[in-house]
Design goal:
The protein has eleven helices and eight strands. It is an alpha/beta fold and 270 residues long. It has a single domain, classed as Phosphoenolpyruvate-binding domains (TIM Barrel). An eight-stranded parallel barrel has the order 1-2-3-4-5-6-7-8, surrounded by six helices. α6 links the parallel β4 and β5. α2 packs across α4, α4 runs parallel beside α5 and α6 packs parallel to α8. The longest helix has 17 residues. The N and C termini lie far apart (41 Å). 3-methyl-2-oxobutanoic acid binds next to β6.
């Protein structure tokens, strides 16, 4: 299947214009090599997610990754992006203390990594910080529903906003983020019907993960959708490839060839 790849760099303005016109595609990326492949395939947005904490660093959750580490990873992805917009996640602790620190962290990310925008989790409690970031020239993507940085408060990664009160609060939060100037909002692991309501209630695009088909776009963690992440297969995840097996086979093939001295061959030697 051929995918139309635009020649120009994606912008936050263009992402906004895609609402209701064309579905937005977003995938996580954490390094130059894979980001280049994903960008060349034509994805609209590369998200340097703080899921790097789990996927790259092997942590149990997203809490330990630092601002310096996120900036380091984002630089490689920015170097790879010829077409896609690059969004970098603001890690836990870099925006929760007060609005001044939040704005300073967001500016550091743009200045030191070259990312086009930042993403942060939360609703009313971060709306003022977002307003100030946007005023300072930092494009912001919101993140509502399952917000993994609050895993210790939620006690797990279950579906959010099943009850009416939480669903209503989520709609209010989405409207606040929209008014604060977010150019898009990620909706994670909420009922599809609620995601449809939120999508209709805000002027900016919504990007879903485990939020059904009515959102303006979709995001997945790259390593999960490539089938590289062991047995991790929640209901919302589709494996678009099964790369763990070929990687395993390549490595066992290499080990055998070295052990039986068939690698390197004379043709592979100087
Ligand atoms: O960190 C991440 O990968 C994310 C996506 C799951 C949206 O925030």
């Amino acid at each position: 299947m051929s995918v139309h790849v635009q020649n120009t760099r994606m912008t936050t303005t263009r992402i906004r214009q895609m609402k209701g016109v064309e579905k937005i595609t977003m995938l996580t990326s954490y390094d130059f090599t894979l980001a280049r492949l994903v960008d060349e395939a034509g994805v609209d947005v590369l998200l340097v997610g703080d899921s790097a904490s789990n996927i790259v660093c092997g942590n149990q959750n997203t809490l330990p990754i630092t601002l310096d580490e996120m900036i380091f990873l984002t630089r490689g992805v920015v170097r790879a992006a010829q077409h896609a917009l690059v969004i970098a996640d603001m890690p836990f602790g870099s925006y929760q203390i007060n609005d001044d620190e939040a704005v300073a962290s967001a500016i550091r990310i743009l200045k030191e990594s070259g990312a086009d925008a930042v993403k942060l989790e939360g609703g009313a409690e971060v709306a003022n910080a977002i307003r100030r970031m946007v005023k300072a020239g930092v494009p912001v993507c919101g993140h509502l529903g399952l917000t993994p940085q609050s895993v210790n408060q939620f006690g797990g990664y279950g579906l959010r906003a099943k009850q009416e009160a939480e669903a209503e609060q989520l709609i209010r939060d989405a409207k606040l983020l929209d008014e604060a100037g977010c150019f898009c909002i990620v909706l994670e692991k909420i009922p599809a019907a609620l995601a449809a309501k939120v999508t209709a209630a805000v002027s900016c695009p919504t990007i879903g993960i485990g939020a059904g088909a009515a959102t303006d776009g979709q995001v997945l963690v790259l390593h999960d959708m490539l089938g590289l992440n062991g047995d991790f297969k929640p209901k919302f995840l589709r494996h678009f490839a099964h790369l763990a097996e070929p990687v395993h086979d390549a490595v066992t093939g290499y080990i055998s060839a070295v052990k039986d001295a068939t690698f390197p061959s004379p043709e592979e030697s100087y």
